[in-house]
Amino acid sequence: MGRHRTDELDDGYRASEPPPRRRSKNSRGRVLVPLAGAVAMAVLLGVAAFVIFNRDHDCSAGKLPLRVVATPDIQPALNKIAGTYNKAMHSIDSKCVEVSVAKEAAARTANALAAGKSKADFWVADSSLLMESMRATSGKDTLPQVEGSIASSPVVLAAAKASAQKLSGALQPSWTAMVSAANVANVDGPGRKVRVLALDPQKNSAGLAALLAAAGTAKEAGQDKALVGALKELSGQLAPDSTALLASLTVKSGSRVPVGVTTEQAIHAHNVKKPEAPVVALYPKEGTLSLDYPVTILTKDTGVLKAATDFKQELSSESARKVLRAAGFRSADGKAGDALSEDKGFTPEAPVALDPPDGATVTRMVQTWSRLNLGTRLLTLLDVSGTMALPVPGTGMTRMQAINKIAAEGLGLFPAGSEIGLWTFSTHLDGKGKDWKENVPVGPLSESINGALRKDVMGRTLAQMRAKATGDTGLNDTVKAAYGQLTKTYQQDKVNTLLILTDGAGNDDPDGGVKNSEIIQYLNKTYNPKRPISILLIAFGPDAKKGKKQMETLAKATGGEAYIAEDILQVRDFFLQGMERRLCTPNCDG
Fold first, then answer.
1. In this protein, which residues make up the domain named VWFA (predicted)?
2. Section 89-95 average pLDDT
3. Which of 112, 103, 160, 428 lies closest to 281, judged by CA?
4. Residue 274 vs residues 31, 169, 285, 380, 432: alpha-carbon distances, Å
5. Are 129 and 106 in contact (CB under 8 A)?
6. Partners of 102 in beta bridges
7. Dihedral sign, CA of 309, 310, 311, 317?
8. What is the helix, strand, coil percentage profile of the chain, to 5?
9. Model confidence over 193-203: pLDDT tens digits?
């Protein structure tokens, strides 16, 4: 039989079937067919949505670990962002990315990376300054490129909120004021009321940024010598990290107000943890540098590289930025969140940004800090010849008394770990034919000599020193003996220096001894630029200028310098200039 259309039957039904009974308009039966269609459509849509969802969140091939290493300050915020990211099931090649964020100091990660031992796939350091320094020393081809910044935090001065009011008359927030306050030679400056604390620039990026900012502004302000004095003082006032530094700001110790250098974010973190001892941020008027939290992708694996790129994109999302701002960071563009409000001790508006230094400048500053903070090994030769008993016009002192005061002023600039000794010199001072005498052997100032600290022994010896009325100078013989001893006992980890304090009469030795030309020949032959021992000569008195040429020739034969003091207080600057020269030795004049 052929096929028949049902609509050819009565009412569209087969003739063999009875027609259905009609229902009223309000009957529920009329909605069953469309309802069934809707249910079917919903089921189909649900299946489609399931398929689409799983296509973007497909973990059928397992997990894809992404190992992130971040500095301790930003790690908690990144860990929170990573937790949200992991829950969203980001899929790469049918594997769901699983981000873990480990905490590690940037310097440690950098060292591991330089040694080829880093196991991280993704690194968030705290500063591009560190990366630039590494790149300048290791070579551009050996390190991966930084791929943008995810946050920022300006480096600022900090003080306890309880003592900040006391600073208004003693220290205006600026890098130049900080340098003046920290300058060890400026005993009459703001350092009388303010004690500056710092972070080690070799271990802490905020400390390095502060050093670079202070050095740059000091140079523009003509504070080069003051900067050396400040760095020398700060080397003994270093805190191991921002947590320790900020905690020390709120502890009373003496009459001076402690001021530190750290980041905004570190201050925020301190205040959250210790609300009973808040710290406020002080913004340098010249502007500042900021930590910029650069991202560096380290992995070479293709799949992990895709995951790293995806997570990097997540870190630039507004939701991630909110997490970072809530933790006290600014966005990369300087935008602050509620955590950095005025009522919490901050200035929400981004501070003026100083020009960031290049890699060479960063490297040079790190080397400067390292060299400046090498230990000191100093042998002082003190002139006690007969002319030292003569008066210095207008001072009420003899030359001997003036030189002793100069020695006390200068030697007081050196920290306790310095190794210092004292010889006096004049003809036949220690028996016939020997023009020098060892009064205090070279050793640490903090070391005990017969029950007394070497520092105290030095002070007493200087105070009791008297000129030998019948003695001539005998300078050249003494210099040869002292330089020879320092050469034999040279210490590689210290700056070795021969300091000569005299009234400037030059070599005066009726018995002959070593002639001027002979001592220069000896120094030229003995001086070793790989093991440098410099002569620093300071002369004071009316005869000083007469022997200036000879003294300069003597000092420069060893890469050193000779200074003529017209005022006792000038000695502070001379000692600082001597310290400054240690930064360029052995190439200060070449």
1. 377-579
2. 92
3. 160
4. 67, 27, 28, 49, 70
5. no
6. 69
7. positive
8. 45, 20, 35
9. 888 999 988 88
Strand partners, 566: none
Q: Tell me how far apart the alpha carbons of residues 426 and 396 are, in angstroms, rounded to a whole number.
A: 24
Residue 21 scores a pLDDT above 70: no
pTM (2 decimals)? Answer: 0.72
The CB-side HSE value for 586 (13 A sphere, CA atoms) comes to: 12
Q: List, for residues 30-76, the tens digit of each pLDDT value.
A: 433 444 444 444 444 444 443 344 445 788 889 999 999 999 999 99
Give the contacts of 125 (CB within 8 A, at least 6 positions apart). Answer: 71, 106, 109, 110, 131, 205, 293, 294, 296
Strand 153-160 vs strand 194-196: parallel, antiparallel, or unpaired? unpaired
d(CA 101, CA 96): 16
Contact between 199 and 248 (Cβ < 8 Å)? no
Distance between CA atoms of residues 385 and 503, nearest Å:
9
Query: Residues 167-209: pLDDT tens digits?
Result: 876 778 999 989 988 887 777 777 788 889 999 888 889 999 9
Indicate the SS3 state at residue 119: coil
Structure-token pair, residue 344: 């919490």
